[in-house]
Write a structure and sequence with these properties.
- It is a single chain.
- This protein is an alpha+beta fold.
- The chain has a domain of 111 residues: Lipocalin (Beta Barrel), CATH 2.40.128.
- Helix content is 18%, strand content 22%.
- The chain is built from 2 helices and 11 strands; from the N terminus they run H-H-E-E-E-E-E-E-E-E-E-E-E.
- A 9-stranded antiparallel β-sheet has the order 10-9-8-5-4-3-2-1-11, with no helix packed on it.
- Strand 6 and strand 7 form a beta hairpin.
- 11% of the residues are buried.
Length: 304
Amino acid sequence: MLPPVLPPRLPESVPPPQRQTVLAPDQTPPAPLPPPFAAPAVIATARPGMPWLKVLVLALPLLALLLGAAWLLRGQLPADPALSLATREGPDAPPPGPPPPNPLPVLKISLLGQQAREKALRLELSAIDEELKKRVAACKPPEPPKPPPQAALIPPPPPAARPTPPPALREPPQASRPSDNRLRLPSGPTGNFAFLQGCWRTDPFYHERIQSQPGVSTYCFGSNGGGQLEWRRGRTACRTRAQANYSGSTLLLRDADTQCNDGSDWYADQLVCRPGADNVAFCSGESRGTFGRATWTVNLHKLN
């Protein structure tokens, strides 16, 4: 190790500089140069030499370890970014096209059209509401069906007995026929239906439980008990075959199912006729239609 270097010492007897004018010539002798610096005495000490070879041999494993670690960690180091960029000038930009049309006027016209349509629809809706209210007010609920006219089941009282005229004043039996033209049954069952020959009309009755107005049946029979039935109610007419026969002392008038001129169905019915006072036929009818069972009571009146 080298000893520290000391600064040089200045001579102790250095005369101070004297002033002189610039115009006066310099007549002073030059100052003597200072003596050179004295070299400091270096005391050299003897030291033994460093074993560099031994140190190098001992450091080789450490160097190998560092190199191996650096080789293993080489993939973890960030790669330099690729700064080589290739640029190329493209074609010139196309000239700007015409500006797009302004859609505002078209939208305003469409809006005005939709508003006019909305007003028209509202007026139409209000008119429909008024018409509906008028129809609802004019539509009345259907009236319940009127009960069919019931004929009196109690036979009328027998006429007062008149005094028997003398034999010369008696009328023939044909002159005693009543003038009401109602059907009169014979005193007992018979196979001869001459009393039923011709056409007979019933009183108005309801053939079904729900019916807007009553109808009338017309029976036309021959002397053998066969014939036909026509039922009318307004413009509706139903025609089918009919048959008369006896069941004990009761006269039965039966018909068959058919279809009317308005497309509705006619359900077969039957009249059960029993003799009453003066052998007048009191007939009760029964049918089973769309709305259930219906019954009625009528008389038969001769037409011809």
